[in-house]
Amino acid sequence: MASTAISLESVNKRYGSTVALDSLNLQVEPGEFFVLLGPSGCGKTTALRIVAGLETPTTGTVRIGDRVVNDIEPKDRDVAMVFQNYALYPHLTVRRNIEFPLRARRVSSHERERRVMEVAESLQLEDQLNRKPGQLSGGQRQRVALARAIVREPNVFVMDEPLSNLDARLRVEMRAELIDLHLKNGTTVLYVTHDQVEAMTMGDRIAILKDGVLQQVGTPKDVYDRPANTFVAGFIGNPPMNLMPGELLGEPGMIVGIRPENVFLDDNGSIETRVTLVESLGHEHHVACRLNYDNETIVFVRVPSTVSQVPGIGESIRLSITEPLYHFDSVTLERKAIKT
Amino acid sequence: MISGRRRTRIRNSALAYVMILPAFVIFMIFVFYPLVKTFYLGMYRVPPFPGLPQKYVGLSQYSSVLSHSEFLTPLWDSTLYVLFTVPAGIILGLGIAVLAHRHLAGIRIFRTIFSSTIATSVAVASVIFFTLLDPTTGLFSYWIGQRGGVGILGNPTWALPAVATVSIWQNLGFAFILMSAALNSVPDDLLDAAAVDGASGTRRFFRITVPLISPTLFFAMIIGVISGFQAFGQIDLLTQGGPDGHTNVLLYQIYTVFFTNADTGTSSVMAVALFVILVLLTIAQFLLVQRKVFYADKR
Known about the structure:
The complex is a heterodimer.
Chain A: E1 6-15, E2 18-28, E3 33-37, H1 44-52, E4 59-64, E5 67-68, E6 79-82, H2 94-104, H3 109-122, H4 138-150, E7 156-160, H5 168-185, E8 188-193, H6 196-202, E9 205-210, E10 213-218, H7 220-225, H8 230-235, E11 242-248, E12 251-258, E13 263-265, E14 271-280, E15 284-291, E16 298-304, E17 316-321, E18 326-329
Parallel strand pairs in A: 3-8, 3-9, 6-7, 7-8
Antiparallel strand pairs in A: 1-2, 1-4, 4-5, 9-10, 11-12, 12-18, 13-17, 14-15, 14-17, 15-16
Chain B: H1 4-41, E1 44-45, E2 55-56, H2 60-66, H3 69-100, H4 107-115, H5 122-132, H6 139-143, H7 159-184, H8 188-196, H9 201-212, H10 214-229, H11 233-238, H12 250-260, H13 264-288
Antiparallel strand pairs in B: 1-2
């Protein structure tokens, strides 16, 4: 399949006085798996719908390949979309659902049959072809939605939280399948999610949005290791980065960030705290502690399950920290380039 | 010896029967008894002169009336009337609902206007159109050059379509509300998906919207056919069955035969026939059309 770049140049979207996207610039490379990540209402779905042609930008330019597509109908953009709730046509069988885009493009019946069977086989849907979507499980519906997108052999896939309606186990399976699929056909994917695990595991690059404003673009490692500001630092990583007021080389007005995996239980540690919450995940424990010297600040510690003595709630414990430390300006909330 | 559980069950059933008794009594008095009585009256021939005793003729009156043009011509007129009003009513209602199903400024005003005819009675609608269709002063008559003479309502060709138009207009508000509600129930995501899948607006409408609102279209068709065969008010107010019987639909004929001719036998036969026809038509529609209807909860 062909791979095509997507670019959004100074794209704004306003609904009345509400700003959904504020001067968004994005460049998705051909064949890239690009993830738009952010909390609900950050504008990521709006950006996706603008690329698909379901919304028009208030100002700005959208390009797919070399073509400016601002005024091009969704049907003529060669973009296939997977929806959050699958958006399968409930009155049509799985077969008719998958071939719907082909029928709309007047593909011959022989060719339709060949492509439907090929896609159905690759997604293990051969036995479901004559059933209606209502008779399928969530995972099967998800596959049909994918099949309907793939069968067209489009230039670009856009996916709007396609895994969010699946249960946890199925989500992990489908994640692997999507990555596999992308590796096989190499089509450009623009993928929207609020789930940082999906973003980190699937994306070649991630763009993090907040309130319609782009916060950072980078590889998963980039955004984790070098968060551009406190929002990204707090959004990526579970538990989130610990952020507390501090100073840098004697300069006050700083926010210091430490990842929970860089904080340790240490009887000789210099930081005195009291445990407020312990979450046991099996392979590790997340321990939340309140600082003794600053009752406002909660520090998360990741404790591996190999540690035999997990503190209980209310217990006083001491912590020590290691590098890296991150320093953010307490006014702009941007990260200072110095890393100690 | 009756066990405790059995006694509770009997008491519960008894209570249930007591609860449905009022509805049952009303049904028996106002529906079931008149139906049986009508069927029974249809077996008695009314003598040509008042005062003479009615004569029991059994089902022979049924066969003679139902094969007579006195019944068949009004039945045909009713059929034409239904063919004029039902498809046009549904298509117009759907068309206007599609137009109003947009996020435009001030669209609510239009929605209110479009649905306003639901608050109009047959009498009001008929008077409005009677004025518009008046041969001398009516605006419609003026537009289509039918000035003077007998006008549209007196024209054998145009009288039935004119009366049908009044009904379509009067029922438009209901059809509009029905279709608007149906259109609102179609998920936007499906239409978005179809748009991205490459379907044109027309294709989206006929391949996605129409199948998804088919239960409403089916419902509109069933009640349209039933109410079409029961049309009376507009006929009585606009044409009284004229000119020369061209708008003499079945129910109006039954009314005329019963009240004007005082022929309870013949009119009862026709009333029973209308009942049977409506039941058969409804069954036929369920059998033939319902296969094309998609119910979201029936998988």
